[in-house]
Amino acid sequence: MTDGTRHKEFNARQMVSVNQAVVVAEELVSNFYKFSGSQMRQLNYDFKTLSQLAPHEIVDAHFAQIVRYRTQKKDSLLETDAADFYLICLQDHAILSAVDRFENLNLYPFMIYIVCHELIHVVRFRRFLQHFQVPPDERQVEEIRVHHATRELLKKANIDGMDPVFAFYGKWQEAFEQMDEIVTNGNDVT
Ligand SMILES: [Zn+2]
């Protein structure tokens, strides 16, 4: 959670890059997994940037936080009766701070990497290849797998400025984002 001080948000020009990066990354992930349009929609996720985030969706130490919102049907004991939705909360301040600090790291390729990485997590949750909540050591193994997949996908895509991004992720084993889960009853939360 954040200490409540004001964080730096993407400006209008940066938002254009971020939105373009999301579109490109969605297409790359969709092609990588050979998903149809309806399969992509079934992933049931959304991205938000800092200005749209609720206080509990903001973190300081990560570039993103994935919040799984689960809605359990009233009076149901079955886990399968829960509908879930993944909100990928982009942390503008953490991303911009990395771009400021690392000379060759540019926002657009960096955002493509971040978005691809988060989407691969969502795909793996949806395919039950990975549970959402796991102990830290298992989390770290999954993190390495997701970084490998992200790199494999992006190497084929030949995007300008991606080499400094790969160099930036030399330390793959570090957890890349925070995971949080919020369970509600009844009404949809999106
Ligand atoms: Zn990750």
Topology pattern, helix = H, strand = E? HHEEEHHHHE
Structural class: alpha/beta
Largest sheet: 4 strands, mixed
- Helix fraction by DSSP (H/I, runs of at least 4): 40-55%
Q: What's the total helix number?
A: 6
Global outline: globular
Give short descriptive properties of this protein.
alpha/beta; 6 helices; 4 strands; 16% strand; single chain; binds zinc ion; 190 residues; four-stranded mixed sheet
How is this structure best described in words?
With 190 residues, the chain is α/β, with parallel strands linked by helices. It has one domain (12-185). The protein contains six helices and four strands; from the N terminus they run H-H-E-E-E-H-H-H-H-E. It has helices at 12-32, 37-42, 92-101, 107-126, 136-157, 162-168, and strands at residues 45-48, 64-72, 82-90, 177-185. It starts with 11 loop residues before the first helix and ends in a 5-residue tail after the last strand. The chain binds zinc ion. The site of zinc ion (ZN) has 6 residues, from helix 4 and helix 5.
Task: Describe the secondary-structure layout.
Elements: H1 12-32, H2 37-42, E1 45-48, E2 64-72, E3 82-90, H3 92-101, H4 107-126, H5 136-157, H6 162-168, E4 177-185
Parallel strand pairs: 1-3, 2-4
Antiparallel strand pairs: 2-3
Helix pairs in contact: 1-4, 4-5
Short description:
The chain has 190 residues and is α/β, with parallel strands linked by helices. The chain has one domain.
